[in-house]
């Protein structure tokens, strides 16, 4: 999830915009997927629906950088440890969501959905103290 309004405001001012990814509920995760369920991480399908309408459906074949290269680059800056989560980007099809909508996502290998990857969650209004305003 990305708070685009926060991102645009920070970018406009030349400020870091990582806050736009850090709000509560912005990183829902599936259950842990066994490595054995994904024989080739560079050949899986990722999908996301909003209210059962497909928003994203693409393959990791399209990654600009392969996973070993991503991990190598990250590890030059910070130590990666067991349990760390590395975000690799997102397929085309991003767009706004509204409170009350339901998002569902998952991973498919050879057209078969990996059960552990299934995730479903409602879009909710933020209950945090942060209030966005342009400055």
What does this structure look like?
- The protein has two domains: 1-30, no CATH class; 35-122, Fumarylacetoacetate hydrolase, domain 2 (Alpha-Beta Complex), CATH 3.90.850.
- It is built from two helices and five strands.
- It has helices spanning 4-12, 67-75; strands spanning 45-50, 53-59, 102-109, 112-113, 119-122.
- The mean pLDDT is 91.
Secondary structure topology:
Layout: H1 4-12, E1 45-50, E2 53-59, H2 67-75, E3 102-109, E4 112-113, E5 119-122
Antiparallel strand pairs: 1-2, 1-3, 3-4, 3-5
Task: Give the gist of this structure.
The protein has helices at residues 4-12, 67-75, and strands spanning 45-50, 53-59, 102-109, 112-113, 119-122. With 135 residues, it is of the alpha+beta class.
- What's the Cα radius of gyration? 17 Å
Might you state the CATH topology name of the largest domain?
Answer: Fumarylacetoacetate hydrolase, domain 2
Poorly predicted tracts of residues: none
CATH second-level architecture of the largest domain: Alpha-Beta Complex
Chain-averaged pLDDT: 91
Question: What is the C-level CATH assignment of the largest domain?
Answer: Alpha Beta
Q: In terms of structural class, how would the helical and strand content be classed?
A: alpha+beta
Order of helices and strands: HEEHEEE
Basic shape: globular
User: Number of domains in the coordinates?
Assistant: 2
How many distinct helices?
Answer: 2
Fourth-tier CATH superfamily name of the largest domain:
Fumarylacetoacetase-like, C-terminal domain
Largest sheet: 5 strands, antiparallel
Helix content: 10-25%
What amount of the residues lies in strands? Answer: 15-25%
**N→C terminal distance:** 23 Å
- Beta-strand segment tally: 5
